[in-house]
Amino acid sequence: MNDTLSARTARPVLDVWCELQCPDCHRALADLRALRERYGYALEIRLRHFPLEKHRHAYAAAQAAEEAYAQGHGDRYVAAVLARAEELGRRGEALLLEVARELGLDVEEMELALIDGRHMLLVDADQAEGKAIGVTGTPTYVIGGERLDGGKSQEGLLERIAEIADRLLAEGGDRG
User: Fold this and answer.
1) CATH 3.40.30.10 is held by the domain 14-171
2) Can you give the pTM of this predicted structure?
3) What's the pLDDT tens digit per position in 143-165?
């Protein structure tokens, strides 16, 4: 395809570095829903994993989320686990499997994925990329080359993301 044409038709990308044991990431879901409603498929929203060391079950939760995506239910699974982020801190893997069961996922396959580590490389790659661009906490958003930190405060972030997305769409898109 012509490079000029593909540049003009590319969708803007919003990368969201998230951690499933993070209460701030749970609160950020409302903003992500609002962005999906406003832009539909015109804005690509990608979950990126950034498990924090202070949350001992976050790494397993990231792997479980990837297995849920592999089974076709990733967004539902992420939202359900984030809604129980505090409980995840207490119950760990048992909660991850319980949520999978409640959503009708293949629990045996989820458990096997957590044992065999089939999604570890993807989680590690997200975390490494996040560190490379300066992500230190969650949620952190990157759109149009601009990093927005929601870990301290999410106030005004929805409006700032929308402003950047509107500009990128008017310019013909951006790949990240």
Assistant:
1) yes
2) 0.87
3) 999 999 987 778 889 999 999 99
